[in-house]
Amino acid sequence: MKKTFLAFGKLARLAGAAVMIAFVSVSVTSCSSEGCTDDTATNYDEKADEDDGTCAYERDAIIGTYNNSTDNCISGTSFNMTIAAGAAATNQISISNFGGFGNSISVNAIVTGSSISLQSGSLGSGISLLSGTGAIAGSLLTINYTYDEDGTEYTCTITATRSN
User: Which of 20, 32, 37, 59 lies at a 20 to 30 A Cα distance from 89?
Assistant: First the structure.
C-alpha cells in the first residue's frame, strides 16, 4: 500500500508539472502584440500581430483645410480648399474646390513623401485637368498644374496655407 501511495504521489507531481508547463506554454503563445499591422503605413510595426488602429500614412501630413489659397491663373481671388483621404488607396487624397473651380470640383492625387501627383480629370464643363505635381513644406502647399479649356492649355500654380 505504501508503494502505491508513493507512486501515486509521484504521478500527481508529474501531472501537476505537466499542467503547469502546458499553462505557461499557452500563456506565452497566446500573447499578442498590438501596433500598426499595415505595411504601407509610416509607423508599421513588424512585431505587431494585432492592429490597434494607430496606422499613419504619408498623406496624413497633407490632409486638412487650406484657407486663403491663391492661383496665379485667377488673379485677385482667394479660395479655400479641403484635402481629405482618398477612397482608392492609403496614398490617395481628394482635393475639394481645387483651384477655386468650385466646391463641387474634386481632384484626386497620389502622395509620395511630401510630394503629390495629380490624377487627370474634369475641372468643370469643357475644362480638363491634364497633369500636375505639388509638394508640402511645413504648412505651405504648392501645386503646379496644366489644364485645357476649349483647346487652350493653361499652366498654373496654387499656393495654399494649411490652417489645421
Answer: 32
CATH 2.60.90 for the 62-162 domain, yes or no:
no
Residue 112: its H or E element: strand 106-112
Q: How confident is the model at residue 150 (pLDDT cuts 50, 70, 90)?
A: very high
Domain map of the chain by residue range?
Answer: 2-51, 62-162
Whose CA is closest to 121, among 113, 110, 109, 129?
129
- Band of the pLDDT at 27, cuts 50, 70, 90? very low
CA distance 44 to 14: 44
Neighbours of 89 (CB within 10 A): 14
Cell digits of residue 86 = 482618398
Reduced to 3 states, what is the DSSP secondary structure of residue 154? Answer: strand
Q: Cα–Cα distances in Å, from 74 out to 99, 134, 141, 147?
A: 8, 18, 17, 13
